[in-house]
Amino acid sequence: MKRSVRMILAVACLLIGLAAVANAAATDQILSRWGKKIKLIDREDQVSNLEIRATYYSTEYVEALVQSEAQKNLWTQQEADEYKYRLLNTLQLEEMIPIRIEFTNNGPSMHLGPFDVMVKLMIGNKEYKMADYDKRFNFKFQGEKEGLVFFRRYDEKTGKDLLKGVKQVRLIFSPTISPITDGRRTEFIWDIANDDPAKLFQGKAAAKYETDRLIKRLEKLRKDKA
User: Fold this and answer.
1) What's this model's pTM, rounded to 2 decimal places?
2) Whole-angstrom Cα distance, residue 156 to residue 145?
3) What top-level branch of life does the organism fall under (predicted)?
4) pLDDT score, position 71
């Protein structure tokens, strides 16, 4: 009898372990789908190189990122909700299209300031300039540098949702970012047809975020009237 119980427990533990591995693999696949990278090698010396990684914060990516961090750090649900809340605050998804850019520059120093003219987002057949970005990109560097850039989600004049009905977006880097590009534009493309950021604003973390946002808006209105 005891032997049978031990056998059942062993099988149960094995199945749980396999499920966890499969779940982690699926999460990693999602993260890699939205985080793309390109490595450029200098054509002359064949040694100097530049790696660029760009991550589009889709709904699927954000949820997978929260899940991945929770599993990695053995968080409680409350801790995972708090992380998601802080992430939503940082990303400003209700107004912006956030993209993380990471450089690993093993070549000549890169001079990217002002950075907002170096990278554009193509939505449909129109290119858009950044609304905001990590100002550290303005300073010359070698080695690693990363940060967030933001593009407006809505047209400033009409208020139209720029992503409505759009199937793809394209992030375009100027060929002048580094001599290693050899005069070529570097591009990243994401399929966003099924992305729905509204799904992120559900649950405790989203409720807290919306409450804070409403309080800030009311405070701003009160100051404007004063």
Assistant:
1) 0.84
2) 30
3) Bacteria
4) 96
